[in-house]
User: Fold these one by one.
Assistant:
Number 1:
Amino acid sequence: MPLIALASVKSSPGVTTAALALASMWKTAERRLLLEADPGGGDLGLWLGLPADSGLAGLAAAARHGHEAGLAWRHARELAGGMHLVAAPAGAEQAAACVAALSAAGLPQELADGDEPVLADCGRLYPGSPALAVAAAAAFTLLVVRPRVSELAHLEPRVRGLEQAGLRINVVLAAGDRRPPSEPSYPAEEIAGVLGVPVQGPLPADPRAVEQLCRRAGDPGPARRLSLLREAAAATRALDAALGHPPAAPDIPGGPQEIGRAHV
């Protein structure tokens, strides 16, 4: 199973929400690792009401001295339903230093070569971000973007640069929020045609589903029938298919969606 990175290139379209939803609904592995590799600082520990510690800081310190098997998992907190979380510190300076240390130690490639899925929240992939090394090691990077012209205009040149840096890009559309009436929005098919990369979505805005995930420490429970988690479950099946893994039988109504038009 692969390392999958999630990131944005501008604004805050919901990368952390998408990562949490995908990790909670992944059904082809008994356990999944959710790694906060956001140099801007972590949110999930606060969202989930976890004690104020940082698995990422401990992992970064340990990685400097070697990579024994299962190192990342030993620094993760076990949540519900097989999800494990390596939470980042809230402060940007410390979080960025931790991500840089992990990258320098070669841990992203080790995670990519593992047998269990790892989803890495890389935050915003700005030029020079220490999380670029995490994304470069990933089987592919899901760029989360709202399908509106002001964000898509910034996305196209960044996609080209990231591909040249070796990243394998897919785009995940987030539900558009309020925008000026004059700002157009575009469907997934048109965006895929322009960018030349697979496009998935949109993942709907669903505050109730996010609230339930956080309240239940990552266990979707009855919220799995809400719109965000239904779409997240379909997306995980599509990810497995793109990677050549046998699909899991859906446990909720609705079939998988394709990840764009291309293979990874």
Number 2:
Amino acid sequence: LALRARQPLLLRASDGDADLWMPLMRQSSGSASALANWYNFTWAPIFANADSEVEKLALLRGLAGLASKHARRLTLAPLPDEDSSASMVQAAFEASGWSVFREVCDQNHILEVKGRSFDAYWEGRPSRLKNTVKRKGKTGAVTIRIESEYGAESWRDYERVYARSWKPSEGSPEFLRQI
């Protein structure tokens, strides 16, 4: 649903048993973009049987050459760098003659729980934060509802809150409902 109007472009590079797949979508005027949408947290090339960075870079360079026959411009987002995906793609495409423009579009904040329970985590929070949460909780400004199914009432609440948020309109609400 969220991508039904898009024409796919699947590029593949291989070397022996190692493969690289890059799922893309054709765009207007000879460009292509990552096969991703509003709901993707990340997108990345798909490697099979390529374990080392050297193998991956070689496959990416081969794919960069192939990509130039299918598109004048590629937009590969949201491409993370926590696993060096963005850095490898940049290096390989630059080495293959592409001009690469890269910018940070978001940040992932990861909390290592290190086996702690929530209570242990909360105990370590600053007293100012704990006091603020306690004080605001007494006003009734925040309520928590735990459900085992996401029914019509939940959707109405979600859509009401979303409409009042800072976010742009939902990319494909029907897609969300179906998943």
Number 3:
Amino acid sequence: MSFAECILREDEKAVYKLRELYGSYGYMKYKVSKFEEYDLYAKNKNFLVSDNLLTFTDTNGKLMALKPDVTLSIIKNVVANEKATYKVCYDEKVYRTTSSGDGFREIMQTGLETIGNIDSFAQSEVVMLAMKSLKNISEDYILDISNMRFLEGLFENAGIDTDYVSDMLSLIGSKNIPAIKAFCAKLGLSDASTEKICKVASLYMPIKDALLVIAPLVEGKKMNAAYKELEEIYSVMCAYDLAEKLYVDFSIVNDMNYYDGIIFKGFINGIFDSVLSGGRYDRLMDKFGKNMQAIGFAVYLDRLERLSSEIKPYDVDDLLVYDTELGAEQIISAVEALKKEGNSVRAVSCPDKSLRYKKLVKLGKDGLESLEEND
């Protein structure tokens, strides 16, 4: 076990692994301020994981907020250039309530953004890096993917008015098939449209199989374009040998005011919530008046604390109890001699009785004496 594995928490280990991963694919480190003007977040609360904000009044009288999100700050500050492609990554502290709702916390968040001119490979690369991010944390992972444009085309083909799209998305998000059927009946949709919507809402399977199932449902330009995006992503994931961990789940939905393409969530076995979330958010760029495309994701490192770590049988290998009449040089010599054996050593004159040790060693005038060993 390496030094880092011995002393770092799961979230701390992930930061270093992911920083190395993103850097190896040419993503540049991006640094943002700890706070922004409150309006930046207030106007885009539906884009945030949590709309609870920590605010304060600056010396100039402006209402400021400690950042609950990094993406909005990056978008605000990126120079508009639709011909260029920016690839940035970050590991920053954000301030928000946790999913358990137990007050505000300072949380380390890492992730990446690709902004500007995004072609099919650039989009697929982000999905690949999302999958590799999960794999760096645990081999037992799944990335679920959806496409908001596919759903948008499905709703338009069915004749669903835009006023009811949000309600339908909510029902699909909960996979509530009886409620979906009742809502379709209320809207006066045809049996064929209702059946399509229910089939899409209940679908959950590896992307290889899902593409075969949804192919007959594709109708119109939007659904066809969305289907081709999923095909391209599947092809790239096959090339990276990651496809078997990629599942299609159209119940992953987000606000269509911000997202307009693929979206995805990542899961690790042993953690109930998603630990990664991302997708295309071109419409958010439009809200900022920037004619650019954008896709990215964030890894929620606070949720990694729930991963069960191996419980060490001992707090220290060697507990060295020394006589207070001895000189510092004698104690140092004994400690270094034990450390040369590759052991961790705690040297004390009065040991903590609750400390778990592998070996108890006494240092007196006559030298080292082993008193106790625990297997």
Number 4:
Amino acid sequence: MSKKHSVLLKEEKCEGCTNCVKGCPTKAIRVHQGKAWIKEDLCIDCAECIRSCEYHAKYTETDQLAEIMEREYPVLLVPPSFYSQFSANIPAQKIKKAIKNLGFKAVFDVADAAAALSRKTLDFLNNNSGSYISTSCPVVVRLIKLQFPELIEMLIPLKSPVELIAEKVEKKLKEEKNINPDIFFLTPCPAKLTTVERSIGQESSFLSGAIGVENIFQKIYKSLEDIELEDEDNDLINLATIWGSEGGEESILKSWQELNTLSVSGIKEVKKLLNEIERNNIPEEIKYFELTSCVDGCIGGVLNVLNSFQAHFNLEKRIKKIQKNSQKVNLELTQKDDEYYNFALSKQIKADNFSKLDHDFKKAMEKLEQLQKEIEDLPGLDCAACGAPDCKTFAEDIVNGRANKTDCIFMLRSMISEMAANLCNLANELPPVMPGDEGEKYEC
């Protein structure tokens, strides 16, 4: 697994199409010389390129189950979205028992921390003026750091549910059993992998690693038939499991208090909203924004097995089942057990400044001047046929020596036409071979 990013590239599988280039929200991908390459400083691990690549040249590597089982005390954290991969008729307790049968010493629900975070979020919003953006989706946070630095102050300074539960589990196991666990997350998306090595707003992550849903789903599913529960009706699961789909966090907050919130999913739609917030085009009375990179929320993660429509159906039925047995659900507006959570981020979230053309100021100014000239020469069609997402980005690649003007088919056509005209004019200027022979004339 890459320490910097979890979205990786297999060059040998790349066919040089530009689908990934067009879909990348941060213009991090180029296709030059027939192969794609990823500009790491611009990648936010949103996995849009993995979705769009028909040749499977983009991929992600998660921790492997066999390697995890070599740890002394492996623990798995299960996200709310994972339960959407199963029918609501399959009890959550049975699913967790199947996970433990794989070799994990303990299994914990991230939904428990999600409920605690919702309580803390509501308290924070009631005691602070202004509007805030959820920090639970790492892709959205990285997008803001990279392209919307003016909005960083709107990011609510609270840890994500994954980090909260990981910290709590580590603390409790050390205090109660004197155990130093290796905590792994069952992730629906590559972005959570990146946070293990590059945590946001923290010195380091409390996670030891992460394993993709697709890596162990079949093993869990196949073993469910052999698992029996003493009381299948006594299926204690947190109502905050609704966090697994779009609007889940919003619905939990509104179940406690009338609150003006807005929920948006899908990286393209999120970018549109952030642009509107940046322009002050969003009503001030909206207090909280729940933004998720994947369409339909975490159930739309690229590492999941089911499509998001079926997953949404499964999760909705499971939530209704929980609500029906509400007397067994502990989701009151209370701070019970919250003393184990340390909600505040330990580090300030700062902008990512990767816009410099060169680290040397003098060279950067020279490149800027050259960049303006290149942009003026280019057609400005932003067709992506050159392998860059738009003409401005293509001009930057030319200036930095990563592309040539001839990569643009319009520039190439213009240069060939000019060359052909020059050859024609030169041919008409040839002297006669024999006296009295005027030579053949060409129409240019």
